[in-house]
Specification:
With 313 residues, this protein is of the alpha/beta class. The protein is built from nine helices and six strands; from the N terminus they run H-E-H-E-H-E-H-H-E-H-E-E-H-H-H. It starts with a helix and ends in a 52-residue tail after the last helix. The structure holds iron/sulfur cluster.
Length: 313
């Protein structure tokens, strides 16, 4: 190799290294933005719904999936910055599904230094015994899981139960209920548990699934596959997921608007007679400048005033 060729390859190597460094810097910047965005959206949801208060003990349900890892991680970050004191206990319910790796979560949580509890309950065998082959097992399985988690929360003295459902779970549930159940009903960010004793919270309510997916990659969470029970993913939910993904691609902003509409409900313009007293509605003869203009077309393109600015992220 002559001197000129050697010089050129040295320059090429330097340029490639500089390009690599730039790429790494860009990725680090994007990852930092993602972390900040998750903290902001989770903090916003906690604040909007008053999810966590001073002195709370929060049981964070950890399944080993990307969302629950992200939830625990972000809550731990926010706790460091919070002006209030609250405790966190991570809880995993080992349902004894075939090939569930029982060592993964304890190893992760030990490293993190978070108090945790692993509850061993063979719901898998119960479900397999009671549900005929080929039938959906999820409803019995989740009922059993719910009961166990409420009991564990009691035993651990936790008054709040945090679940890792995100914005897309909420939207999918909303459309599932509408399309297949004939109900306008989503998945609340905060609710009282059905035993009436605990507050269930969903701090990832404003977070997109794509962000928890990316965050899990960035953080290298030791993901445990969610199909160990062998149950088929709900076909109807799959259809809704595909519909939403298609909208995201073809109609940017639509999904954000639908999500925003869940927090901008106008009962007088729906038809639920329990929610609005149509039967007793009276005229009062007083003009209302903010009232309905019955025969005008609704300006459907007006942006909602309290749209969560996900599009600006
Ligand atoms: S997918 Fe499996 S583990 Fe999850 S709720 Fe359904 S039956 Fe239970």
């Amino acid at each position: 190799m002559n001197d000129t060729v050697m010089e050129r390859s040295a320059v090429d190597a330097l340029e490639a290294a500089a390009l690599d460094a730039k790429k790494r810097e860009k990725i680090a910047h994007e990852n930092n933005k993602l972390h900040k965005r998750l903290c902001r959206l989770v903090g916003q949801a906690i604040g909007d719904f008053n999810m966590i208060e001073d002195g709370d003990k929060v049981m964070v349900c950890l399944s080993g999936g990307k969302d629950s890892y992200a939830l625990l991680d972000i809550l731990l970050t926010l706790r460091e910055r919070a002006p209030i004191h609250f405790d966190i206990v991570a809880v995993n319910l080992d349902q004894k599904q075939p090939n569930f790796p029982p060592e993964v979560l304890p190893a992760y949580l030990d490293k993190l230094g978070v108090p945790y509890h692993i509850e061993n309950q063979d719901t898998y065998s119960i479900v397999k015994r009671l549900i005929p082959e080929g039938k959906t097992t999820c409803s019995l399985c989740s009922r059993l899981r719910r009961g166990i988690l409420y009991r564990v929360a009691d035993e651990l003295g936790c008054n709040k139960i945090a679940l890792g459902h995100h914005r897309d779970d909420i939207l999918e549930t909303f459309f599932l209920n509408m399309f297949f159940g004939g109900k306008l009903k989503g998945m609340p960010a905060k609710l009282v548990s059905d035993d009436g004793k605990h507050m269930v919270i969903r701090p990832l309510a404003y977070v997109k699934e794509a962000d928890t997916e990316r965050y899990a990659e960035v953080k290298g969470f030791p993901i445990i596959p969610c199909d160990l029970c062998g149950s088929q993913e709900n076909l109807q939910r799959k259809q809704i997921k595909a519909m939403l993904r298609d909208w995201e691609k073809k109609h940017p902003g639509r999904v954000e608007n639908v999500f925003s509409s869940l927090s901008t409900v106008v009962p007088s313009h729906l038809m639920d007679r329990d929610l609005f007293g149509f039967a007793d509605l009276k005229t009062d003869g007083v003009p209302n400048p903010l009232g309905d203009i019955a025969f005008d077309e609704e300006p459907c393109s007006t942006p909602a005033s309290n749209t969560i600015p996900l599009t600006q992220l």
